Amino acid sequence: xxxxxxxxxxxxxxxxxxxxxxxxxxxxxxxxxxxxxxxxxxxxxxxxxxxxxxxxxxxxxxxxxxxxxxxxxxxxxxxxxxxxxxxxxxxxxxxxxxxxxxxxxxxxxxxxxxxxxxxxxxxxxxxxxxxxxxxxxxxxxxxxxxxxxxxxxxxxxx
Length: 158
Fold this sequence. Notes:
This protein is α+β, with helices and mostly antiparallel strands. Helices cover 28% and strands 29% of the residues.
């Protein structure tokens, strides 16, 4: 059996104006501001997409995602679906996600995020791990200026 591990990162600053919802892991959070970006700026799904791209070598975020944005396809789940198509025979075993932000509070919606991510990817909820931290306010994310997400994904192939 072959095993690979991928890592992905994404970060976005908060909008200066409240003109879009805050979406994390495909789940809407009640928050004063959404994240800046051409898409829905879902940093969780972007981070997972980047982790898959680190395994496949096929970058989705950037040119492909920009093309979709120009077609008014701004749901980050669509970018994740493109990344998943590139796995070609690799099975996702586990995803670990670490979210750094001052607000919103992530813990109340972890179960809903895990369920949504598991459903999108086609794995069991228990194979999605999510942690959250403020980083003790040492970075702009911990100071409330945006959100950063790191994801690690493990895959296997017979």
